[in-house]
Amino acid sequence: MSEQIPFVEYLHLAPTPHLVAHQCTSCGARFFDRRNACASCFGTSFADADIATEGFVRSFTIVSFAAPGIPVPFVSAIIECDGTSVRGNLTNVTADPEHVSLGMKVRLTTYVVGSDEAGTEAVNFAFEPVS
Amino acid sequence: MSSGDVWILGINMTKFGKHTDKDTVDLAAQAAMAALADGGVTMADMGVLAAGCLMGGGGIAQMIQKQIGQTGIPAYNVSNACATGATALRVVYMSIKSGECDFGLAVGVEKLSGVGLLSGGNRKDDGKTWNRFGRYGAVASTDGRIGTDTMPGVFAQVGMEYAHKYGGADFKLFAQISEKNHAHSTLNPLAAYQKRFTLDEIMNDMMIAYPNTRAMCSANCDGGAAAVLVSDAKLKTLSLEQQRRAVKISASVLTSDPYEEACQVLPDVNTLTRRAAAQAYAKAGIGPEDLDLVELHDCFATAELVHYDNLGLCKPGEAADFFKSGATWRDGSTPVNVSGGLESKGHPIAATGIANVWEVCHHLRGEAGDRQIQGAKVGLAHVIGLGSACGIHILEKSGL
Q: How many CA atoms lie within 13 A of B182 on its CB side?
């Protein structure tokens, strides 16, 4: 099996795929990128926090015009995962307003974006409906 | 008039649309010269200049000076996303308020015709081997792979979030907001588009980012706008006609977005607008019920809805019902975007935050012609720059 790497650093593939945030040890605010100080309380100490892999769709849009190379239409959504908001695409669902709904329950899944010349696969996350 | 007030003495916007024969400096100079003439003053009177052109590189303020008059005054180049024009206005306002000068000029200009889809984070071609870059350590552009950075998509999510929270808003309602603004635009000769669309035409237009179809998106176009501000003390020395046409800036507020839980994944355009509105109403001693007209930042139809609520035009959570009541049509209780809004008037980014003030002034001066809101005495102009910045100006007719 070829080597796999996560598409972004905040996606961890093992032991099972999940997202990891930098959590402020003072106020609990969570950030997917690095911060020098907490945007909420200015604390400077952070610890890793696993994000729940199930949640519900708080908002979405179905994008028909996107950057070159991005297949359209696709569903972009804001997912609330046990109190933490996550941004991602919805997958394994027909991208139309009849099949996507506000409040819909979803869970994290992964897919291979592509391989580079060394054969390394980049694995990205998305969310799929919980059937 | 009372000591410390700052007034708009002259103001102008160019026709918005496609200006193939003019560059940004030409458009800025045209608006600036017209604003000076409108106020009955010249560059010799100006004590400060603030100008912005978001997509045009730096130094627009000095380029304007070289085009219309170099007097050595302080020149500020401002850049604050879609709030750039409002920020330039506020820089001049603060300079006068501080006592540094009596007159100042604010200019915003942009050329956007044919630019196409605006997005926050497009990147170049992906490399041949995966390399991590950016603040998320991504191996390729995240736009379209982890949600969307496109403006129609981001603001679609802003509107859909409101729909989820409060209900009552759907594709049809968002399209009806666009129907209103396009209808309003037919009375505005300076709008980029003056075409009335039926609801069916809007809903069946090309889908950009559900629920925003093309007609529900702000129109990329060229345009400039400029304003001359004056201190209260200086205004008293000017002609009665200048004093009569002067418009009082009862509040000038700029806010940025405070931390909110979800702001790292979806820009929060609500909290900073609510805060700016509260500050502006307190400073002006005016409530939302006193407003005769509102120009708010309808960069997309989905955005207009949430700002009814954010600006306190309706009760919390009741924006959909408020719109359905007809309140925001030009014959309603709180006319919103009688200019046609960004969806039809157009959105030359840095010009927008002055052009919406021009629209309100036009009505307060009783000079808005066919689209005049009769008896207008108080108005509000609002812009949001994603990132985020919110500018609100409350404007009042002269008592003379």
A: 22
Report how many helices (DSSP H) and strands (DSSP E) chain A contains, helices first.
Answer: 0, 10
Q: Which of B130, B158, B204, B213 to mutate: most A Cβ within 10 Å?
A: B130
Q: Name chain B contacts of A51, Cβ cutoff 8 Å.
A: none
Q: Where are the domains of chain B?
A: 6-114+219-397
Q: What is the ipTM of this complex?
A: 0.96
How far apart CA B125 and CA B35 sit, in angstroms, is 45
Max CA separation in chain A (angstroms) = 45
Question: How do strand B247-256 and strand B6-13 relate by DSSP bridges?
Answer: antiparallel
**pLDDT, tens digit (0-9, with 9 covering 90-100), for B295-327:** 999 999 999 999 999 999 999 999 999 999 999
- Between chains, do B158 and A59 touch, taking CB under 8 Å as contact? yes
- Which residues of chain A lie closer than 8 angstroms to B161, CB-CB? 58-59, 78
Selection from B314, B283, B50, B45 nearest residue B169 by Cα: B314
Phi-psi region for residue B313, left (φ > 0), alpha (ψ -120 to 50) or beta? alpha
Q: How far apart are CA B370 and CA A105, in angstroms?
A: 51
Q: Which CATH class is domain B6-114+219-397?
A: alpha beta
The Cα angle at residue B386 between residues B382 and B392, in degrees rounded to 5: 20
pLDDT at B123: 47
- Asked if the Cβ–Cβ distance from B266 to A87 is below 8 Å, we say yes
pLDDT tens figures, B333-387: 999 999 999 999 999 999 999 999 999 999 999 999 999 999 999 999 999 999 9
> Which residue in B has a C-alpha nearest to residue A127's C-alpha?
B146
CB B207 to CB A29 under 8 A? Answer: no
Token look-up 């160019």 returns B14
Q: Which residues pair with B251 in a beta bridge?
A: B394
**Which contiguous run of DSSP H or E holds residue B67?**
helix B60-68
Q: Per residue in A115-130, pLDDT tens?
A: 999 999 999 999 999 9
Nearest chain B CA: its distance from A18 CA (Å): 14
In chain B, what residues touch A76 (CB-CB under 8 Å)? 147-148, 153, 157
For chain A, the domains span 4-129
